[in-house]
Design brief:
The protein is mostly beta strands and 155 residues long. The chain contains 2 helices and 13 strands. The strands form 4 sheets. It has a 5-stranded antiparallel sheet with strand order 1-2-5-6-13, with no helix packed on it. The longest helix is centred in the first third of the chain and has 9 residues.
């Protein structure tokens, strides 16, 4: 019990997204041009518990054979700003364009495999031998759920 408590205490806290700012200052220094500023968050996927296989009466293999795994992550705030020179053909109209995407949560589920054996359970009327059946093959479709959005601005 003490070992489990120590392992739980030593686990670092999970971050939703790791903030990252792309360093482009060297380009500005080297080329002498204004460069965009990019700040975003790198998503940290959190894997959930896989769907447990279910055994049905009369089937030799569980369903699904390859379990569906849920994965959730937070897409962090993203902001890209860039200078827009001579917007109307005059230096007085210099501005800055921006593209921002607020943070959102994305949920996914991996595909699962459903496979049925070509043999039935042992049959008493057939001297305990299994009968041939039509094999089953199926795929549980993957899912992707989220509400990403983007905001375009110019000032």
């Amino acid at each position: 019990m003490t070992c489990m408590a120590a392992a739980g205490a030593a686990t670092p806290a999970m971050a939703d997204a790791v903030p990252v700012s792309v360093p482009l200052d060297a380009v500005r220094t080297t080329l002498g041009v204004d460069v965009p500023h990019i700040a975003t968050g790198v998503p940290v996927p959190v894997v959930g518990a896989p769907q447990a296989p279910v055994h049905h009466t009369g089937d030799l293999l569980p369903t699904p054979l390859l379990p569906v795994v849920p994965i959730a992550t937070d897409l962090g705030d993203t902001l890209v700003t860039s200078p827009v020179p001579n917007l109307a053909g005059r230096p007085e109209t210099d501005g800055e364009g921006s593209l921002g995407a607020p943070a959102t949560t994305v949920h996914t589920r991996s595909p699962g495999l459903i496979l049925g054996a070509p043999l039935s359970m042992p049959d008493g009327s057939n001297y305990g031998l299994p009968n041939l059946t039509a094999p089953k093959l199926g795929l549980a479709a993957p899912e992707l759920t989220g509400t990403p959005e983007a905001l375009l601005g110019l000032r």
